[in-house]
Amino acid sequence: MENQIGAKAERPAAGGEDFSDKALKTLSLDELVKRTRTSVNTSDLDVSSGLKPEEAEERLRNDGKNCMTPKPPVPLWKRFGKHLLDPMLVLLDFAGVLSIATALSTPGDTTDLYLGILLFILVVCTAGLSFFQEGQAESAMQGFQKMMPQNACVRRGGVQTTINAVDLVRGDIVILSTGDRVPADVALLTARGLRIDMSSMTGESLPVKMCSILEPPAAGESIALSGSQVMAGNGTGIVVRTGDRCTIGQIASLANQASTTESTLRRNVEHFVKLIAALAIVMAAAMFIVTIIQQGTKNILQRIVSSFIVVLVANVPEGLPAAVSGCLAVAARRMAAKNVLVKRLEVLDTLGAVTTICTDKTGTLTQNHMAVACLFYEGEVQPADSLSHPRHLKELKSAEQLHGLFDICFSNDPLHCTIVFSALCNQATATDFVQIEEAPAETKLTAARTQDVRIDMVKRAGSGRTGKAPDAERHGSLVLGMAESSDNVARFKSSPVLIDDVTIKRVRTMPIGKQDFTNINRGEAPVPTRGKADALRKQTRVPRERDVVAGNASDVAMFCFAERYVDVMELRQEIKTIFMVPFSSERKWMATIHGVPAADRTNRTSKHLLIVKGALERILPKCKLVLKKGAVVPLTPDAIAEVESACGDFARRGERVLVMAMATLPAQPDSFSYTFEEDEAGNIKSNFTIDNLTLISCLALHDPPKVGVADAVLKCQRAGIRVTMITGDHPATAEAIARHVNIIKHYHTREEIAAMNLDGQSGDVELAGAAVVTGAEMESMTDQQWDELLSMHEIVFARTSPMNKLEIVTRLQAKGEVCAMTGDGVNDSPALRRADIGIAMGLRGHDVARDAADVVLVDDDFCTIVNGIEEGRLIFDNLRKIIAYTLTHLVAEVAAIAITLLAGLPPGLNSFMILSIDLGTEVCPSLSLSYETAEDAIMQRPPRDDKVDRLVSIPLFLYMYVWAGIPVAMLSIGAYLLVFQSHGIPLSELVHTSYFQPGCGPLLIGSTVFSEADQQYILSSAQSAFLGTIVLSQFWHIFHVKTRVNSIFEHGVFNNRLMNAGVLVELGLVIAIVYVPFMNSAFGTAYGGQTELWTMNLVSAVYLTGFNEFRKYMLRKDLTSTFSHWMGW
């Protein structure tokens, strides 16, 4: 009869109290059962009854579903309204209201009414563009939503069943197996070889050894956290927290509480809007004062309103908001092509202002899987990637020849032995490769192409081209350290994995054909594959998602290393393992014993092969011999010193060292069984000896940096960007990787300087420029120590918690840094939200992290971050170019109004002409600047200081309004006046004139009478010359704002095809407005002043070219001069 605890206990209302991990670990089994009110069989914990179904239903009603409470969806109208409240659009709204107010105050004149309506339409269209672009990003994000488990295996009422994970309640008995995701926070009752990847919660890159709550805390972790991955083994446990009460829910809540930082673009736009408003008010006030002096105080109120409205509307760049939104949308699409998914368009500018990148290590800087880096044998270190192909193994590929490999086990070649032993003394397993007819050449995929296809699937999720968003299994990268689904791992449950840290890894191969190679690890050098036997059968191993290697990280690395040279699975079939001592973290070694292949049994009946691999300190003392120079010789103290020195170098580089050794055992009859027993004290009892081993080689394993990361870090440093590593890993490992990828390169740590002083070298410890700091050390640091630390150039933070990361970001921002934070785990989400720009990983990132971030990297690559920063700098440059181009013509437009208000001349432009410029001729050229390429050295200049170097700086303001704006305005007024002059009307007749308006009557100048129709034609011709001079000046101006420093002739005048098309559209529009009859009627134009127009156009072209080329030459000559300070924008 079962001994059930709690089966008959009094059960209070469902729900109960929440408790912390610390409290749980101190509870006895009886107390835990009492507090969770469930039924546990103490004689066999695996068959505990658990909750009764009706109890579970009641708790589900009271406690709620086992899922995090989603953030309430933002209604579409609110999301659209947020874009309508953009400061630039608010300015247009204000101008529209004033225009309509003016129209209502002047009955019969509908011009201002049409202007107001057009401004409101422009506001809605511009907001709609931004709304649509962010909606596309949101759709792409939905392609990532596959993190939490769908089902859970539980025992209810003594019956094992599978339920939806959201229906789990506290007190449920959950069964965990390899490949499962933990569905809730679980206190483990049993744990057999259980290893769980909790990196998304803790940042620890290696899977965690788990134990039962009945075992002492030193045995391992006893609480499995919701959302973590079971990498090996199995176990049972009691659900102690569900939904928002889980650790993942608590961290997500912390992320929601972290305040977001306003983007630099929004701050710059608000500054720009204030500047425009202030300028308009000053101009309106100045003009009003002048008119009062000239005309007195008659109708003063009406003149105040009319002058203010006219000047404000003239100062508002109506086309600029659309141009800026278009630029950001174009940049977002361009960045998506570079695997950067932008969730908020306004953060694009922030990327270019980043001064510090806080990056995690695993999977971002490194490949997130172990690989064999180096081998040490025969007294030499050999990089694994540069090994020459073993000559004897090359021909031994077919199944008929594999039995000959047993000769190598007794050979005197340590490299051959290392390859074979890596395959045999190894618990990693793989699915068999399916043999199929060779695919046509045009359909073959390389490993790199397969990765590109998978990334493209993610991108298409946001573009609506597929009906179903790809799940994590289909758009993941090479899966290392994490099982993508329980289905992938289920195939390996028959092969027990009883080791420390488990990796499930995809192996891809290229088809056999003209390029007869295998590429097991992407990025590794190709090596010959199985050769002619398969090729003759017209069969091949093609890239298949189901080709999987499962095992601990070290075993998978050694499996893949051996697979380069032999077919590991076929080799194991031929050379059987007759006994195995599994690896244990306490013992730190494993061993296998192998029999003779069937084909050779008659020739070799006297020997069995013992292979041992493990930690240096455990295996080296057991070795008495060494395989060296083709012979087995005694292992001398000098040889031991060589081994220890080489392995010490490996360890200092953060690499894991394994030693391979062997021995021969006498063959035994078939009835003989090997035995091995080990008690809790570590005492071993076996019927074979593991002493007197022959040392073969040492292998150094590492999580290799991704290709290009080291160069990308240097590129950041040249750009004045500090790269800081923040990881949950051990500080020694973190420091080693940091040095490998150049995060620590140019400076010494205090420990290094102290060691140099001990060696007789001089060095001031206080001048250290690099530091490695742990989370525990951070918690005791003072503000002064923080200031000293953050002033260093190269910093690595190790063993960090979520609060540590949040504090790092907050303190960096307090020092004026623009901080980019990368992360993939739940533990990263608070810092991601708090950073100036949060960057989440798309392939391996958790939903919580992606939700908190502003940008998602589709390929999880640090190099992509650098590409994004470069793109951000280009966006800022192009936005400045758009503003420089667009606002230059405003001076001329204001001048057209000023000559009327100040001098009483006929208006230089009517309202429709102004709109034809702002919303017609300027649109296409300004948008084409979004496609402008970067100038040289964009990543060799320091980040801009956002507090000083604003989007609209004083030098840019001077350029737009003084150096370019005033000359264009003067030329436009000149063309306007010359048209009157060509018709015999002097300037004196125009000042404070009452003519050239409806109902004015004939104008007599000398003997010439100008009828009202003549006056209207001359005015239209003069206004057309004014309009044409502005537009054609901008026609030339657009080419000169293509660059800020470089000569346009060096950069390329016509290398932007969209700009070429845009200026042709601009030219076509102005010609149509001036020359096409029905356009003359609509815009009030006439083609009477062509000589004046084209003359001023020529002068404008010469001035703009000469001035800008001289200005850029002086900037290139000395960027630090006073001239550059005032003229460089």
Key terms for this structure?
elongated, 40 helices, Calcium-transporting ATPase, cytoplasmic transduction domain A, alpha+beta, eight-stranded mixed sheet, nine-stranded mixed sheet, 16% strand, 1129 residues, single chain, Rossmann fold
> What is the domain tally?
5
Rg result? 38 Å
Total number of strands:
37
Q: How many helices in DSSP terms?
A: 40
Overall geometry comes to elongated
Mean pLDDT comes to 77
Topology-level CATH name of the largest domain: Calcium-transporting ATPase, transmembrane domain
Q: Would you tell me the structural class of the helices and strands?
A: alpha+beta
CATH-scheme architecture of the largest domain = Up-down Bundle
Query: What is the name of the CATH class of the largest domain?
Result: Mainly Alpha
Helix content: 40-55%
Question: At the fourth CATH level, what is the homologous superfamily of the largest domain?
Answer: Calcium-transporting ATPase, transmembrane domain
- Largest sheet, described in full? 9 strands, mixed
Q: How many angstroms does the end-to-end distance come to? A: 86 Å
**Could you state the oligomeric state of the chains shown?**
single chain
Poorly predicted ranges (pLDDT <50, ≥5 residues)?
Answer: 7-16, 140-149, 391-403, 432-546, 598-605
